[in-house]
Design a protein that fits this description.
About 25% of the residues lie in helices and about 35% in strands. With about 220 residues, it is an alpha+beta fold.
Amino acid sequence: MHPLDNVIWQALSTRDQQFSVGSDGARRFHPEIGPLAGFATPGNKGYAALGDVLATGEVVGLFLPEPFEPRPGWERLGGGNLLQMVHEGTIDAQPSLYELQTLGDNDSPEMLELTALTKPGPFFKRTHRLGSYFGIRSEGKLVAMAGERLKVHGYTEVSAVCTHPDHLGKGYARVLMTEVMRGIRERGETPFLHTIKENTRAIELYKRLGFKERFLGYYVIIRKQ
């Protein structure tokens, strides 16, 4: 299996295991880290293992190769097309025109506020602990950020790329992504990312940065009943 196939499960059972709870059949991130979960075996066996990890009423997000099929014990809350892209280009060697700041625990409230506004994907109180995060401030306020999420053998995901609506068009996303990608490459790893297939504006930026489409799958948000 390629490291990026069934990527959430592979991350939760290898490099991100310390941030997860579960079993040999299914795992999920700690609730303060995020809602993503995965299982080793698709189908009834996988969902049964996942059900053993969750309490009734808990909500998780899955990445699937095929659309979610309704099944007893689970309620679908949302979902759609999910594009996985892998970086195959070079990293911009030009210095940034902006001052980038490393983000950590003290910045968590602002990071939550920005992601709640821009909705780049699920971002929780401790999501930033999954890797390096960088931000740009304007008049002391966090207006753009990007960082790392899923980690598997040889690859690290670029995630939570977002810019406040009042500061779009300044190239913040490109600068921040480049910094995150540079750190990944310096570790001898390859950057990858996920985006909604319909997010054409973001996809064009990712292609200009050297990302190539690898796989079109699906994401689903489900609740255990």
